[in-house]
Amino acid sequence: MSDFRKQHPVAGISQVIDTIKQNFITLIILLFIGSTNSEGYFLYFLLAGLGISLVGGIFGWWFFRYRVFEDELQIEKGIFVKKKIYMSKDRIQMIDITEGLLQRLFGLVKLEVKTAGGGTESATISAITREEAEELRVELRKTRNGAVEGEEIAKGEEEAQEKVLGEWKLPSKDLVYAAFTSGNFGLIASILGAISGQLGELINEETIEYIYELMPGFNNVTIYIFLILGIIIISWFLSFLGVIFNYTDFHLKKTEDELIISRGLIEKKQITVPFDRIQAVRFEEGVLRQPFGFGMIYVESAGFDQTQQGRSIVLAPFISASKFKPFLNEFLAEYSEPEYTVRPPKKAFYRYLRRPNYFLIFLIPIVWYLLTYGWMSLLLIPLLSALGWLRYKDAAIGMDQEVLRMRYRTISRTTAIAKRNRIQNAELTENPFQRRKGLKNVSFTVASGAGGMQFEVKDLDQTDGMKIYSWLSESDSGKPEVMNYKNK
């Protein structure tokens, strides 16, 4: 593949669609604002902007070309400013193949190549055939799999490399359960942002009087309660659809060198995760899933989706906690589960109970003063104390010769498993109040995405803290390499 190749012309349209997707919320807000303009000038500006984007997409496709030359993936692009990208094979960490709706209409795919030092967007080939993508994928993997430059891989050897050693599929029934219990209400902020510009027009005296006529006996408080509940229900419904769209036909395969994940309903995506890039495994049990004994498995991988900090890869969207260990044994045998031997001491119990309530010291007086029923905010104290009790109960650490297992809770309960040689940084910290009681916090960080993912257990006995410190500090030279000791 030494000659330059071009993408399919659909790449120009794909670029326009990507621009719209990235600015979707902004466009919705602008449409609301523009709808108040009776002369329609805003619509003309919007159409002109879309036209310019389309022309830019077409010219972007025309000037985009790529090839694999010697030991590099080379990409040249740019209309007015020419940009050349050279990605060495030995730095390529992941090769993802995605079938978006537009690509599927034309029998094409999108290929993303991700390295340790570059962003993923600049290494995206938006529209090529499946055959071209697979050819490029095999070509770029040769160095990582040990093939000599210019030497052809024997057919039998290639088949051995692609041999499936293990498979896991998400059953349709579990997909529905995962959607019902996702608990992902992050879309609430987007919905509020989209409608905030119109609240002044929607909520006025005439609207409120009309609502009172339809629902006699309602007052301002009940109307706002119903409004909040409505937003939550809508957000939950959109979250439900998001899980269905993202994880339909979820399929995990294990080969000799990597894990291959394929998923998606409208946009079908294939993600490759080399074993040598995996930094840690995480089992997340949400508040809606833990009572039923289910959770979600992630892996932290260096370099994955570098446009986002601490981006994790989903290995299993919905799985029983009892099946977590067999899952690890089959797909990630190196990540064992050491028994928990370190837990917060009894003297830390009341600190766990108090910590979630600290912000109430400032909140309750303000709410009590401003609202008629502000005294009801006192009910948050036992609720947050119960959360503190769960945090105390769940906090634990276990170690064997090479693996650290840490469990803690914020809202969801997290179990993190990392190998000692994958830990980038670890800290043993204490503040003056902890020092009086002989308590310390232990945390460690692994590479994930553009930065790192941190895990922490608070208020351990200082003896246990130093024991973990010593374990994390061990190396071939016997000298501490990753530990930081801090007094807050």
**Computed CA radius of gyration, to the nearest angstrom:** 27 Å
How many strands, what sense, and barrel or not for the largest sheet? Answer: 7 strands, antiparallel
Helical run tally: 17
Bin the strand percentage. Answer: 25-35%
Q: Could you characterize what this model shows?
A:
By secondary structure, the protein is of the alpha+beta class. The protein folds into 4 domains: about 10-160, no CATH class; about 170-245, no CATH class; about 275-345 and about 395-485, no CATH class; about 345-390, no CATH class. Helix content is about 40%, strand content about 30%. The chain is built from 17 helices and 20 strands. The strands form 4 sheets. A 7-stranded antiparallel beta sheet has the order 6-5-4-10-9-8-7. Strands 13-12-11-16-15-14 form a 6-stranded antiparallel beta sheet. It has a 4-stranded mixed beta sheet with strand order 19-18-17-20. Strand 9 and strand 10 (about 270-275) form a beta hairpin. It is globular, with a radius of gyration of 27 Å. Residues about 115-120, about 145-160, about 305-310 and about 475-480 have low confidence and may be disordered.
Topology:
Blueprint (H helix, E strand, L loop, with lengths): L9 H13 L1 H11 L6 H23 L1 E5 L2 E6 L5 E6 L3 E8 L1 H5 L2 E8 L8 E6 H12 L13 H8 L3 E4 L2 H9 L6 H10 L2 H4 L2 H10 L5 H28 L3 E4 L3 E6 L4 E7 L3 E8 L8 E8 L11 E8 L3 H8 L17 H6 L5 H11 L9 H15 L1 E4 L3 E7 L3 E7 L3 E8 L1 H6 L1 E10 L2 E11 H12 L9 E5 L1
Parallel strand pairs: 17-20
Antiparallel strand pairs: 1-2, 2-3, 4-5, 4-10, 5-6, 7-8, 8-9, 9-10, 11-12, 11-16, 12-13, 14-15, 15-16, 17-18, 18-19
